[in-house]
Specification:
- This protein is mainly alpha-helical and about 625 residues long.
- It has 29 helices and 5 strands.
- A hairpin with a 2-residue loop joins strand 4 and strand 5.
- The chain is globular, with a radius of gyration of 28 Å.
Length: about 625
Amino acid sequence: MGLNHLYAAFILLISFTVYLKTLSPTVSFFDSGELITAAYSLGVAHPPGYPLYTLVSWIFTFLPLGNIAYRVNLASACFASLTVTLVYYILLHLLHHEIIRYGSRGVEEYGEGLVCPVISLFGALAFAFSPTLWAQAVRAEVYSLNAFFVALLLWISLKWKSQSPQDRQKWLYRFALAYGLGFGNHQTLLLLLPGFVFLFLGVDRRIVLNRKNLARMMVFLGLGLSIYLLIPIRAAQHPPINWGDAHSLRQFIWLVTREGYKHVEHGRGLTLLWEDLQRRPGGIGWVEGVAQSLFLQQLNSFNLVREFSWPGLILGLTGLFFLALKNKVVGLATLISLISLSLGVVVIGDPIEANIFLLEEFHTPSYLIFSLWLGAGVSFWARSFLSLWRFPSYRSFRYQVAVILLAFGFFLLPAYQLIHHAIEVDRSRDFIAYDYGKNILIGLQPQALLFTWGDSGAFPLWYLQIVEKLREDVVLVHLPQVNSPWYMRPLVKPLRITSNLWGGSQVDPSSILTDLIQQNLPYRPIYFDFSSRYYLSNFAPEDLLPYGLVFKLARPGEVPPTDLWDRYQYREIIEKRVPQDLDVWHAISIYGQSRIELGKYYVSTGQTDRALEEFQMALRFDPTLAVEIGETLK
């Protein structure tokens, strides 16, 4: 094994070890529960279905390691490590073929020796420990697999460029196949296409536009895209997770084109900015308008300083200039890809202010591209530094010492990233979503009907019930989907439902909810999770009984259970040694707010001492609830 491959093995081992050390041991919030359950059942995940991710993760579920959730989390770690390794090889290729080869003989020796592998290692480690990639590497998500395909496509395109004209055709076909497969995992690859097209046309327009080559590329692209056939095939088998029931052409199009998200509220960031600027005078007025705009906040979801620090930003921008100076086509291609992806994600996503955080992981491929610029920037400064000294030989002791000192200085950046971001992304103790879901399920009476609202409230329950077979007697109903025929159809068997109420999205969800309650209350105890309670305007507060982490539709004379809170698990709820993202913070707050609701019940029934005990417990979970408690006690 050559030195280059030894470095590659080192980066693979280091990154995987770090990811494994910080890997989530079980299900997390947000999409994790649904994706794990879809993988376990080889089902169809939320739009656009993610067939490649589901298939690959399904294979990982057969590993004899830990629980099912851990195995799917492990898939993310594996693909993140493979991505980082590919970044190393891409940088090595760039340095050897696009940068160093343009210099003198001394520079060629410098490039082929110790320095190029070290620089490539630096860029790969900087990307490995960037917080966005790292956060996606330690839990079940589609983004590390997406980053892998972006790296693979970059590597293939650069290999294509370095081939002789007669050998370039097969690399075009490989690119088309990989692009089709990658598109079966994440459709943001479409936003990277302008950069790849610029590279191909800028290097060899004749071969790329050849009709036979284009036709064959379409065949290989179609072969890769055929992974989408998994969706109707599996949908026809009615797996437990079967989003959209996409066995028909109409439903398949609905799923793959994300029609189900058309109702999502958009922030109109760019439109509002334009309207605001038209009302302002030029100059300072425009600057103030941009600074205060929602669009700028959306753009800030792409944050190079957060990922690589200020020195890293300077290094990367230097590297872009240096790369473009050495090879204009390659440099501009990477710049076009980064801009088209980052800007496209913001403009197309266009979230309201509260949802801007949802854009952050979409920028992972842009950070990958920037890590290539980082490597090029280090190459520029290393070359500049070494050229100042007259070494008798590039194999001399003085030269080796200089390289070691340079490496030490530059590697302070990934070392800083590793230390600084570990606390933000370490999920090795993260049992919060698992315990939250389990605490809810174990407290429900037999044959219960539980209504849920948010994804983070529902998806851990799906995982626990379908994968871990916990409380299969409970019927879970996700309120945002109750007017979707594909979702309600499987519920006809366990529940009593008036079928003409869920015939389409035009039906008022509250009508369906009322019907479900009226028809099933005589036969099942009915519960609502904490978030869904706020959508029950038809019920008076006294109708909803605090019941641990949920609310129960009260029957006459019913009182809250006294032992339920003692049966719960609270791992890291009090200690808070896991990353406090929005979902984790919200779950911890629900523990506290649920104790407040129980305290309010005791106040209303004259049990003041018990109410004070509940309020004190609420503050242990979330000290910020003191204001709400104070208002209650007035």
